[in-house]
Amino acid sequence: xxxxxxxxxxxxxxxxxxxxxxxxxxxxxxxxxxxxxxxxxxxxxxxxxxxxxxxxxxxxxxxxxxxxxxxxxxxxxxxxxxxxxxxxxxxxxxxxxxxxxxxxxxxxxxxxxxxxxxxxxxxxxxxxxxxxxxxxxxxxxxxxxxxxxxxxxxxxxxxxxxxxxxxxxxxxxxxxxxxxxxxxxxxxxxxxxxxxxxxxxxxxxxxxxxxxxxxxxxxxxxxxxxxxxxxxxxxxxxxxxxxxxxxxxxxxxxxxxxxxxxxxxxxxxxxxxxxxxxxxxxxxxxxxxxxxxxx
Length: 295
Description:
Oligomer: single chain
Largest sheet: 8 strands, mixed
CATH topology of the domain at 165-265: D-Maltodextrin-Binding Protein, domain 2
Number of strands: 12
Shape: globular
Helix content: 40-55%
């Protein structure tokens, strides 16, 4: 049996994304090359590893067994790298981190900048996901560290406090809601909103709470970043819901910040891992660094 580390990493990415195309993309590999590698693994084993369907791929029983062993092998490799780094300066460590929007935009950039500057031998693969997607991925060993809102079920993983994330309503100067210091989210739903892309986890979260109130957001435009959302609000196009901490980076005196009184607007972010004791030394170091930098 001749599987190399590239094969194992690729297979885990394919299973995680339920797509050979997306798995190949995340592995920085051409689709044809990825497909050939997967087929080569199946030919070597003499059995199918993936069930291929119109909605993507799923691991067969043999594929699930391979996921377990691939995860174990790659984790042992990271443990080895972590333990040998002090003796062999050329070894590179690797940590895969999944984060929700709030963690990715507001809390991780500064913390990861200082960590990477102090740890030249460690690479970090950071990807944005919704909290609901992150927890099962961490539980399955498909990533090392997750940053999620504590509103999701985290019973199957170990967790540590990280930061507090409050969602607020931002409105342009002169807007009727700008006279309010705080209000319930439903009170803003008669007004036109500026939103993020449909697939953005934060936008999905906001849309879900509008639906629970029996309403639908009146979206004038969807944008790709919180910064561009703030620019639109600053121009008077509409209102928006964003993390309060995002306003720390904005110099827009024409924007008014209104606190939302809804309980779901205050979210605690937590760090989650499958088993802290099983993490590589550099993943453990990253967690300790994040815990000291969280707010």
